[in-house]
Amino acid sequence: MRPKKVLVVYYSQTGQLTSVVKSISQAIASESIQVTHEALRPRTDYPFPWPTLEFLDVFPESVYLDPPPLKPLQVDVNASFDLIIVGYTVWYLSPSLPITAFLKSPEGKQLLANKPVITVIACRNMWLMAQEKVKGLLARAGARLLDNIALVDAGPSLATFITTPRWMLTGKKGGPGGMLPPAGVAEEDIKRAARFGRAIKLALQQDLEQQGQPLLKGLKAVEVNTNLIASEKIGQRSFAMWGKLLRKIGRAGDPKRKPVLILYMIFLIVAIVTVVPLNMLIKTVLSPLTRNRLRRQKDFFERPSGSQSQRMQEFMHD
Ligand SMILES: Cc1cc2nc3c(=O)[nH]c(=O)nc-3n(C[C@H](O)[C@H](O)[C@H](O)COP(=O)(O)O)c2cc1C
């Protein structure tokens, strides 16, 4: 039997997403399964830590899926893979720009056409709108999405609202003054992501990837926080408006965007500290009335893999 081939495509700045995809891919690689990694390389890479204005300046293009050029891929684009894992982080409720670039590129589309795909997200905690966009881009590339895995920062939303930007803008991951939990996905959650790799390995050995059904049900691949659904939708609408205005003013990097970006940052902070808690309060008060609708939304956004955990024990250890 010929060995199966898995391609893992990702872009990570701090190495957090790299650790997540490696935790998964190391558990897949075996005698019968070859794993190839493709770390995307923008022609001009993004800085880390981010200067504040550059951090803000990527928002309009991220939201409008307007990608930068990438350096040529290292993988042979004529190769045919049995499964492609697309690992991405979220930038402004959208896939990070290098991933958008890959999904839209002729090379990416060639690799993805008619192939089963598993998406792997590692972000702060808001990934629903990004995954809807990725679903659209994958469909346009002719790929079949089998599963989605989302790892998030487990800290309280208000704490991560401080610790994540602090990490991005200063490079400091530890909680400020030891008062807040450190930013990022917990090490333990990254290690435990190996369960997905073990389940994928078994599924590939049984040719299950060809059937178009999820491979990772019962492994708690995602868990939607219903408190954040409305905030994501509102955020998405506001990003679209401000993004449109900024794109009219100038292209990415144009100094003419600066004053509006600063205004936008102030607006964003005020909006987040008011809208998000207000939304959560309204949600709690109205919860008896909205319970069914929220359950339906949770179910929708958790597709295809779901948040059930009945098979976790089976795959927790080698
Ligand atoms: C420009 C930018 C925007 C971000 N926007 C979001 C967001 O909308 N939602 C979210 O959950 N995380 C967001 N993050 C956090 C990233 O998804 C990710 O967790 C972080 O960049 C670390 O990933 P990496 O070092 O593996 O690339 C953002 C990060 C950056 C740099």
Task: Quickly list its features.
single chain; 318 residues; alpha/beta; Rossmann fold; 2 domains; two-stranded antiparallel sheet; 12 helices; 48% helix; binds flavin mononucleotide
CA-atom Rg in angstroms: 20 Å
Mean model confidence by pLDDT: 95
Q: Helix- and strand-based class?
A: alpha/beta
Order of helices and strands: EHEHHEEEHHEHEHHHHHH
CATH architecture of the largest domain: 3-Layer(aba) Sandwich
Shape estimate: globular
Uncertain regions spanning at least 5 consecutive residues: none
Assign a percent range to the helix content: 40-55%
The major beta sheet can be summarized as: 5 strands, parallel
What would you say this structure looks like, in words?
There is one protein chain. By secondary structure, this protein is α/β, with parallel strands linked by helices. Helices cover 48% and strands 13% of the residues. The chain is built from twelve helices and seven strands. It has helices spanning 16-28, 52-57, 59-63, 97-104, 106-112, 128-140, 157-170, 187-192, 194-205, 229-249, 258-302, 312-315, and strands at residues 4-10, 33-39, 83-88, 90-91, 94-95, 116-123, 144-152. The strands form two sheets. Strands 2-1-3-6-7 form a five-stranded parallel β-sheet, with helices on both faces. Strands 4-5 form a two-stranded antiparallel sheet. Strand 1 (4-10), helix 1 and strand 2 (33-39) form a beta-alpha-beta unit. Helix 10 (229-249) runs antiparallel to helix 11. Flavin mononucleotide (FMN) binds next to helix 1, strand 4, strand 6 and helix 7.
